[in-house]
Amino acid sequence: MAVHPVLERVTRRVAERSAERRAAYLNRIRDARTEGPVRAGMGCANLAHGFAACGAQDKLWLRGNTTPNIAIVSAYNDMLSAHQPLKDYPDVIKGAVRAAGGTAQFAGGVPAMCDGITQGRAGMELSLFSRDVVAMATAVALSHDMFDGALLLGVCDKIVPGLVIGALSFGHLPVILVPAGPMASGLPNAKKAQVRKRYAAGEIGRDELLAAEAASYHSAGTCTFYGTANSNQLLMEVMGLHLPGASFVPPGTPLRDALTEAAARRVLKLTDLASEYTPVGELLDERAFLNGIVALLATGGSTNHTLHLVAMAAAAGIELTWDDFDELSKVTPLLTRLYPNGTADVNHFHAAGGTAFLIGELIDAGLLHEDARTVGGETLAVYRRVPELADGRVVWRDAASESGDLSVLRPVAEPFDTHGGLHTVGGNLGRAVVKVSAVRPEHRAIEAPARVFESQEQLQAAFAAGELDRDVVAVVRYQGPRANGMPELHRLTPPLAVLQDRGHRVALVTDGRMSGASGAVPAAIHVSPEAAAGGPLARVRDGDVIRLDADKNLLEVLVPDEEFAAREPAGAAPAPHAWTGTGRELFETFRGAVGPAERGAGVFA
């Protein structure tokens, strides 16, 4: 199937834009490649330190130059449900690698924090920066020159992008991402959303709200709504870093365990000591990243990936822009309805045909680069298959040719919408991202007076006082990466949804984040440049009329240009004393070094 002309054009443009940086990156990782294991060139004391704690057989193999050694880097902790299943993976992996003729060592752990726990609290202001901490921790884990490949264990929001960024600094090594799988479906998503809105409206108390939340998030495994964590899983598969069909197999099942063992065996075949050498830095090329964007758009995935994909690509010497997302969105059909863009969860998606059906449909429509390299085989075509058990080991069979549930997953010929789930908007307030997949068409354009806030707590207080019971564009500024680490502002979703349900025209404009849980209220997020960097949001005043039109790509304040330009900025980022305690003071250097949202909001690029 020929590649869609828009995908072809965007791919060519990205390649041309990135040519110099990409060439420099590839030269760097090729220079890092050695003949045989890099540990063969170590001093004897260095190598002895590296295998001192190993068993006798592993020590014997590690002394030689023919046995591959695999690094295990894990985000395990037993507080976070998504990462709790990873506890036993290292022993499973070591056993499978040893049985296949290799060795494996637990190279290091990386931090894993949960936005669901830190939401609305001080810890959320460390969340985005944790991605770059994970990247650095991954690099430290791989820095010992003991390894010929790596298995990276992680699931959630910032962790997977951080693992990938760190791995790309060792891009001469083959890498496979190993997921844990989603928890069983709990309280239906529509019910959960309704309970949250009733609590925001003051109709029920904390006990009823907590009971609903506990029924939703109830066991080990990834939260089942289609937020950033599950967007990570989908993207890693479409970008060729998971084994085919690995993303949404539940934890604690024989198939999940067999897939983990299969990943351990597979990475051995990708090392420089085997016949299918596949370094991650070459695998993740322009085709892989644009495949990721298309998959994100086709599923209405997390807006966080307008940051993370840009940052991951930069680590591989590739420059993505929001214009690339926007142009592809116009030709990418929306093929799923998953909460918060519908009521189904990822378990329903998996049962309806999941990633294999989705990938097959997009390949046949020319919307994915089928020839992209993957860890599962030479091309993305192998990801049209689904895994199953046969005699205790994984085999792959062809996926069903039809969706098992058209209310959840559709073919390209019958999409939920003709364009993807993300739009870019711009104007005299800067540029921003709008997730439209959950927003009804009649709500995508609004023109209303602004009410300006400098924290989500201020907005919540105004809502509680009845001050927002009207048409309003809520502007929440000084929430960008330089100001306070760019926290997610999910607590704003229920009150704004209540106002919209009352018949008011409502929107949110912010330089903060909303992420994969963005809902039915139109929200222009990641506004760039941010207020703390001198962005125009700092000059908006209460009562200014703001126009947001996601379909026409507009975000503007209707104030004469000369008057608006002459205004002095109002408000300010949090004062230094507000950044003390709960670890926030440790990230002052990050806040000073972080780049703009459009460039991934990272501290490296």
Automatic annotation (TrEMBL):
Pathways involved: Carbohydrate metabolism; Entner-Doudoroff pathway
Record EC number: 4.2.1.12
Pfam families listed in its UniProt record: ILV_EDD_C, ILVD_EDD_N
Entry-linked InterPro entries: 6-phosphgluc_deHydtase, Dihydro-acid_dehy_C, DiOHA_6PGluconate_deHydtase_CS, ILV_EDD_C, ILV_EDD_N, IlvD/EDD_N
Dihydroxy-acid/6-phosphogluconate dehydratase N-terminal domain ranges (all copies): 68-381
Swiss-Prot/TrEMBL cofactor(s): [4Fe-4S] cluster
Binding residues annotated for [4Fe-4S] cluster, in chain numbering: 156, 223
Keywords assigned: 2Fe-2S, 4Fe-4S, Amino-acid biosynthesis, Branched-chain amino acid biosynthesis, Carbohydrate metabolism, Gluconate utilization, Iron, Iron-sulfur, Lyase, Metal-binding
Keyword set includes Iron: yes
Function: Catalyzes the dehydration of 6-phospho-D-gluconate to 2-dehydro-3-deoxy-6-phospho-D-gluconate.
PANTHER family registered for this protein in UniProt: D-XYLONATE DEHYDRATASE, PHOSPHOGLUCONATE DEHYDRATASE
Family: Belongs to the IlvD/Edd family.
Protein name: Phosphogluconate dehydratase
Gene expressing this chain: edd
